[in-house]
Amino acid sequence: MSIRLGVCYYPEHWPEAMWESDAQRMKALGIKQVRIGEFAWSRIEPAPGELQWDWLDRAIEVLAAQGLEVVMCTPTATPPKWLVDRHDDVLAVDANGRKRHFGSRRHYDFSSDSYFEESQRIVRLLAQRYGKHPAVTAWQTDNEYGCHQTVVSYSPSAQRRFRSWLRARYGSIEALNAAWGTVFWSMEYRSFDEIDAPVGTVTEAHPSHRLDYRRFASDEVARYNRMQVEILRAHAPGRLMVHNFMQMFLEFDHYPVAADLDVATWDSYPLGALEEMWFAPEVKARWLRTGHPDFASFNHDLYRGMSAQPFWVMEQQPGPVNWAHWNPHPLPGMVRLWSWEAFAHGAGCVSYFRWRQVPFGQEQMHAGLNRPDNRLDVGGAEAERVALEIDQVEQAAGELAQPRGKVALLFDYSAKWLFEIHHQGADFHYPRFAFEYYSALRALGLDVDIVPVHAPLDGYAMIVVPPLPIVPDDLPARLQASGAQVVLGPRSGSKTVSLQIPGSLPPGPLQQILPVRVWRVESMRPNITEPVALGDCQGQASHWRDLVELEGEGVQAVASFGDGHPAIVRRERVHYLAGIFDEALTQAYLEQVARAAGLAPQRLPQGLRLQRRGGLTFALNYADAPLALPDTDGAAFIVGGPQLEPQGVAIYRTAQK
Amino acid sequence: MSIRLGVCYYPEHWPEAMWESDAQRMKALGIKQVRIGEFAWSRIEPAPGELQWDWLDRAIEVLAAQGLEVVMCTPTATPPKWLVDRHDDVLAVDANGRKRHFGSRRHYDFSSDSYFEESQRIVRLLAQRYGKHPAVTAWQTDNEYGCHQTVVSYSPSAQRRFRSWLRARYGSIEALNAAWGTVFWSMEYRSFDEIDAPVGTVTEAHPSHRLDYRRFASDEVARYNRMQVEILRAHAPGRLMVHNFMQMFLEFDHYPVAADLDVATWDSYPLGALEEMWFAPEVKARWLRTGHPDFASFNHDLYRGMSAQPFWVMEQQPGPVNWAHWNPHPLPGMVRLWSWEAFAHGAGCVSYFRWRQVPFGQEQMHAGLNRPDNRLDVGGAEAERVALEIDQVEQAAGELAQPRGKVALLFDYSAKWLFEIHHQGADFHYPRFAFEYYSALRALGLDVDIVPVHAPLDGYAMIVVPPLPIVPDDLPARLQASGAQVVLGPRSGSKTVSLQIPGSLPPGPLQQILPVRVWRVESMRPNITEPVALGDCQGQASHWRDLVELEGEGVQAVASFGDGHPAIVRRERVHYLAGIFDEALTQAYLEQVARAAGLAPQRLPQGLRLQRRGGLTFALNYADAPLALPDTDGAAFIVGGPQLEPQGVAIYRTAQK
Amino acid sequence: MSIRLGVCYYPEHWPEAMWESDAQRMKALGIKQVRIGEFAWSRIEPAPGELQWDWLDRAIEVLAAQGLEVVMCTPTATPPKWLVDRHDDVLAVDANGRKRHFGSRRHYDFSSDSYFEESQRIVRLLAQRYGKHPAVTAWQTDNEYGCHQTVVSYSPSAQRRFRSWLRARYGSIEALNAAWGTVFWSMEYRSFDEIDAPVGTVTEAHPSHRLDYRRFASDEVARYNRMQVEILRAHAPGRLMVHNFMQMFLEFDHYPVAADLDVATWDSYPLGALEEMWFAPEVKARWLRTGHPDFASFNHDLYRGMSAQPFWVMEQQPGPVNWAHWNPHPLPGMVRLWSWEAFAHGAGCVSYFRWRQVPFGQEQMHAGLNRPDNRLDVGGAEAERVALEIDQVEQAAGELAQPRGKVALLFDYSAKWLFEIHHQGADFHYPRFAFEYYSALRALGLDVDIVPVHAPLDGYAMIVVPPLPIVPDDLPARLQASGAQVVLGPRSGSKTVSLQIPGSLPPGPLQQILPVRVWRVESMRPNITEPVALGDCQGQASHWRDLVELEGEGVQAVASFGDGHPAIVRRERVHYLAGIFDEALTQAYLEQVARAAGLAPQRLPQGLRLQRRGGLTFALNYADAPLALPDTDGAAFIVGGPQLEPQGVAIYRTAQK
């Protein structure tokens, strides 16, 4: 399986006189594929029905002439002003009832009928023109679905389609009333036509109503993408269908969208992510110019799990970005490190965003491989080095098989929505807690697969389930049948599919494999922790704890809270963590379970990460100081050596194995 | 005067097959009364005019058959969707001009004519059907007026009614212009019809205008409640009229509303209150699972002062709740402690919310006496114990007379609005400062009555007046005539009834009994304090200070600020605190005044609170550690003993007295 | 050039019986001029077309009878209710699309045609009546343009006028598309009529679009003011035209507005400013009751630079104000100190706001020279002392020439807008950084002129340029020609006039005098600093740094960041600070440059400030402790002496010079 580099390019931003030189320099740098077109609608169709293909034809030819493959994008993320002005339902409506305006991007409503038709039209026109072009080997639908909080709209169109969606889901209004429990507060409906979007209410809207609205909105994204893919496949036979997803973005369920594609790709901006996400200020300072050592890899492992073919990084941060509250510059070496990290985790392509920093518009402070003065930037030089190293690795090791971990982490998009809607504690943030389990496993040197709840579980020695409120009926049996050690996070099984409390209390269906009852829960404000004793290890719980009754035979409390309630319970291979624990305690317990699972966890030095792919080990040093790699006696190094400089990369075949 | 337990029950939430067992178990637990119906409109009238009484008839019979008394509620807090859809003026309008939506509760405008009529209709229908039912011994109007910021609406209806209200108050537009002082910034009106709600202005709206809008909105609540009470009294002779008010909720003036009722009841959630109110993070941590030792009792003493008959706790927190940002679980024993605390302060009934935790809807994480799996919860077991102890106490002491303190604290709802509208210092929070005076008195072991400014003041040895900006004309003379020591908080008498500065400067009318002038004021940002010297006691002022000139004979400065300005001034029995002082200084001065008043203040150990009722002393331990009760030599204990465990309760008759 | 005191007076707020006594007491206090009328529209024209001049005629006569000069104001800041109700376009529209409401002040849209006409009408009527009145010697247009965020409106009128403004600026839509770079994200326009206000977009709107909207809004203010001035000049020959600007208020460009006036005046509230502006809590505490020692003077030096005649302080804080979040009272002596500070920096008049504290309306807690009970307040007594001292100074020194610094600080309003729109780091706050350079210079005892980028630069020994993103084409040559030492802040020259990155990278045109390239930038979150080594001086950069390549001959790195990048670069007399440095480092480098410029910087004791005017030195002590004045041997003291008490003022002629 070949690995390669790509780049994102906007010929429409530059004088045509520069195109040829750009293409030549791309080729010389080692670039193999070029993504174009995703924001070019106003140039392709400057006025209604007035198509201008010439410039785009020429741009493709210039690239093709250098042997570069083209990833063509549909331009639907940025409909032009004239289109928006012609239809009154294109713009989405926010939670305050205000129409969003034209003037940036993603200014469309997934539920707009007129925009659905306009999208069909432009996608068909593009597909007809370039679908069979030999240089166009892949198609990207739209761009970053959902970016800037655009999944959910409260427009009349969305509300109308929501009612239909509910009708299809519940069949009768009586069934809906029963499933939601609308008798509470006299919220009963007499018909689907009475149901509005759950917004603008005096106090919180009904949680089951809210959860269904999020499910509906997620389905709308999948419907819209499927429309594009179907048109493209009809006109572009044999080409790869891709979309560029975002990092740790959970506003719609990515699995059904990815199922319609060939390749899941994602856009990797480790520094922007660190600044904008949940990390504490001291963590942001610690990894300021490298990103968190487990953040990019979390996404690699996630998208690997939803892609039929090797996933791609469609946009790789090449230097400072413009969109975070603060935008540090990456340490020298990080662009190379991030690139190799992606390949280590299974990427088929790493494509840099963008070829050259553009001097105008919203993103003018976003770095490219080249500076606005057209000199090669630091990131460009590092990309060039990666291209050379790819050759070395492929010569030494051939094509690399996909990585496969012995540990699976079950990930669920709707868990995020549910805990957001119905949090019971204001800082219960699903992505954070899922990430913390992942990070603990990675710091133990383990390779991890991130998989959906419906994935096959065979072959895993250990399965970690971050808080999973709605447990599919068949999951307990499948967990049992896997033979793996299973670690369940708090609040697992705490809700039915309709967002009700299970009749036998949480963990609901999981009681089949772990006979306990969570009879009470407690959320904890930020200045509160509760001590936890796990043998000699003293830790702390924060955010949340479940108070658990042990009911069946063989269940035991492995650790206890300060007030005596069980903190970890276990029966045979099934473990339940009854709270959110600190990093050290989480790691200690996962290490213990990993050993029980027959794995060989090892506590890596801070900043070191290891990943295996195709018989090779990839070692990455996120730390400030040089590191000695463990267990490298007799290793055969292809890149680097047993001493790893800061921001260094080593690739080697270990002696034993 | 008998004391008893009750519970809130929602037969419409449960299969009818469970009702009888529920009623039997209630009786067995010691429950005497059951509140029902306050959110059941959609079941009583599922479609316009289609009344379904059968289920409710049967539910009442099932309860009556066990000898349980029924508190029937009007269901007006949750009009059904069809009703909202039939009238375009039911939903209130927020400060941004947006109509609030259906989908939670309290989605109605107190000024809506159509909702007023719909309310009359449903209340009349209910009253006609159950008004004379022997088991229905009390009626609750609506539910928690004002919850979720629903007192004030900016709808066209509200604005229209506001104009009429102004016309009635001022008679002529000239009188209004003069009273408000609209010549300032050319805000003069030519007619009442020109006056809008004071909202959406470029900078702050006129404070007199804003204050009148709050008074108007408060009056609208009273008008609405009075409408319900009048209908109910006409059809339900001899039944008690009640409403369940909220904790420390000052958005409308409760005194006129309570004056139309027989029993003021309130809903007590000590843990939710601690989390959501003004307390500092370290205070929230200190009392995390007990609530603040003076919070529930503040409300008990407040509602006791507005109730013709003994007040009730209509909803008592039975375990964790769902609605605070974080929701800890109460320590074992607290449900019992809170129950006895209510009785100690004069409650006639403590009614738990709710019988059983409901597994669906917004409040599914709100505990009940029973768990969703129908097992008795911890709170249920504690309620059962309280029921048994009630019998012991009543056997030993007979019916308990109402408590009566020697200390009065004057409380005023409109003071909160005024300081919010016209704060002059962003953290001048009336409820907090009133509470801090109360808490200091309680920590000195004193029983306190909280009374309105128009209450008779005879019989009090000490009267404490938290910042009272508008002083009724007759109050100074009444304070003087009471013979009590009077302690006035800062900003007292600082405004006329029209929100102007008194011509002779503050404290305005209070100059009759204390001849001083507040010639300047100073608000202080959170990181600023000013030292205060009171004899040997060194303290700090924060938030606010008044700079005071002494004018008349016999006035003296008892304490001074660091820069020499008087901090406490006094003439004879009248004391003025010219700032907000820290806890220790406040307590030290109140102790000194209490001694001057002939009382016997004592500094209680942290967490211990005492209250006397009917010749008994009730001792409550909010602390983590056991306590030895003071002055219990020779005491006769009915419950507990002289050593009080954490969260313990003791009830005894002291030897002396 | 004579200096004098004035006061702001509102005869319409007080019984006519008080007017004469007020005028007599003003005269006795030493007041020479009285400002009236700026909020009196509802009294001048209580109903449409019904003019009532009598009261105003009499008020002017009463003042004139005491020899007081009158500054008459146009009342356009507060149109009456009837006027607002007659036109549907007077009220501005906010960023959420909501019309702002009547009920406070400044409730008008600069782009409203009907309000423009109504303003013309009332200004003409006033000018016709009082234009030639001998006592009316000056006219103030409106009041505090832009206060309460009223510069920018998103109304249909504003959007329509914006399109015309763009048409005039760009000529063709193609030119606009090219200048902005609308090809980015398909934002291209086909005509000016397609362009909306840059608001309500899904993510940030195009920065060039936003910057032009700010420029347009700024021009609208100038257009509106010019309309008033033209009418007034036509009817009031020889009178001074003035407007009262605000402190550190950058929402419109003041230079073109001031160019239409004779005197720039400003409203000085040092305590309110300290509380509301960017200062850290500990700085707010340090200068709580004095204001920051450089804040009022910054504004003095700023407005001196835009005024044809000596600027005035039109409103001087006389005691506590009402509008900050917290409102401390000034230390005794500060009203006097602030008054003398104004004169020291070149003021022609210091006018106190207001004569007497008004007991009603929004500002009832704003102090005046007199208290609401009509006793003289502390500020009044200090004003009286200043009036006497003015006589002493003028007797000793005659009329005082304007101050002239040897150091110029280049100030630019649009820099603030640009960095706000396109910040790249969330806390890059232009006014703060400009102020910090100014403050460092002042703490070195240097007199500073604040001047616009187009000002003549001859005669300055040192020119300091805070971050100036758009550098006029001729500025580099003018800086060079001045012969001064030039210190450039980071981000200077970073954008073209259309908000694009210069083709040769920043500092763009400044490369003519300093051949470097800023090839990368980095913004730093609040918990991040980067060490800087300047010889022996170790400092820190925060917020921002530029990474600089040295390109031409003679450029050298004078200081370096911890990672080796240059922190300060220099060629000959041109210095570039490649980051935001801490106070000590900034001061150290500016001191070094000042010495190179031949100046004599001296590090003043904390709180001491010196300013020279008309051959005199004015010394002001902002500190808590007495100070010994440096270099006063042989000095001739007119006010005070060489020992300066806290909050003290000394005025003297130095021996040497």
UniProtKB/TrEMBL annotation, chains A, B, C:
EC class: hydrolase
Residue ranges annotated for the Beta-galactosidase trimerisation domain, each copy included: 406-599
Presence of the UniProt keyword Nucleotide-binding in the record: no
Key words of the record: Glycosidase, Hydrolase, Metal-binding, Zinc
Domain Glycoside hydrolase family 42 N-terminal: 8-391
Reactions it catalyzes: Hydrolysis of terminal non-reducing beta-D-galactose residues in beta-D-galactosides
Xref: InterPro entries: Beta_galactosidase_Trimer, Class_I_gatase-like, GH, Glyco_hydro_42, Glyco_hydro_42_N, Glyco_hydro_b
Domain of life, source organism: Bacteria
EC identifiers of the protein: 3.2.1.23
Family from the record: Belongs to the glycosyl hydrolase 42 family.
The protein, known as: Beta-galactosidase
